[in-house]
Amino acid sequence: MPDRPGDHWDRKVANGLAFLRRRLSGDYEVDEFGFDPELTDAVFHPLLRLLYRDWFRTEVSGLEHVPVDGPALVVGNHSGTVALDALILSAALHDKHPAHRYLRLLGADLVFRMPVVSEIARKTGGTVACNPDAERLLGGGDLVGVFPEGFKGIGKLYADRYKLQRFGRGGFVSAALRTGTPIVPVAIVGGEEIYPMLADIKPLARLLKLPYFPVTPTFPWLGPLGMVPLPSKWLIEFCPPIPTTHLTDSADDPLVVFNLADQVRETIQQTVHTLLERRPDPFGP
183-189 and 235-238 as β-strands: parallel, antiparallel, unpaired? Predict the structure, then answer.
């Protein structure tokens, strides 16, 4: 029997009231890291969906390389002055993957020292970027996302856009090796243009205890309006997974870890170049 006029909205109101009732009564589940799937699906992903689908017009390819079940370590390039790329990647992967998998993001210590931000990060599945947490998540069969460039990636000048920075000591590789988890490189194009960093006011950054203080075409000149990201066109491509099961005994071998980290970095860099050729206009359709 077809819905009568108003049935759709009646259901939405009823679902919304039921959601509020569960939140107020505490009748919902979170895991040991604080991840709240219901809140993520009901609040955060719909907001991010507006960004990645309508504002950034994001195209995603290579999802067949992300396993339908079981663990994988998703390693991406970082950019954009504000780390929206991690959030966009997480929401787009969940929406478009056939199994609608959650990406458990590893974040810098600073993220988890900031009021409100730390709570949101925990609720949406994030945790501190350390090997013990990464290995526990991978051991539990989760998809884990990491951006090894860290603040060097998101805090670089626009003149250095799409040039991947150093991957640190390769801790993410060690976590993958210890758990025998495949590494899935992912290249993201579009993040560099949302807040083009023209300068970094280092004295002010030190005063505020921040890794950098950006100057962009709109910030700080336009105040809060300067935080609105520019509507760049985004392309995300997942690359074929790199197996690690044959290297589990080499997790503490610096040479093996460095070589594998370099292989992942080079794969992402080459894929970024390919995506840039496919997207000649940063603000095109």
Answer: antiparallel
Residue found by looking up tokens 């856009």 in the block: 161
What gap in Å lies between CA 163 and CA 267, rounded to an integer?
13
Contact at 8 Å (CB) between 271 and 187?
A: yes
Map residue 177 onto helix, strand or coil: helix
Its pTM stands at 0.90
DSSP tag of 242: B
pLDDT of residue 1 exceeding 60: no
Preceding peptide of 220 cis, ω within 30°: yes
Helix or strand holding residue 59 (H, E):
strand 59-61
Beta strands across the sheet bearing 235-238: 59-61, 235-238, 183-189, 72-76, 143-146, 103-107, 127-128
Q: Which residues contact 249 (CB under 8 A, 6 or more apart)?
A: none
* Angle, alpha carbons 74-105-161 (nearest 5°): 70
Label the pairing between strands 103-107 and 127-128. parallel
User: Can you give the pLDDT at residue 182?
Assistant: 96
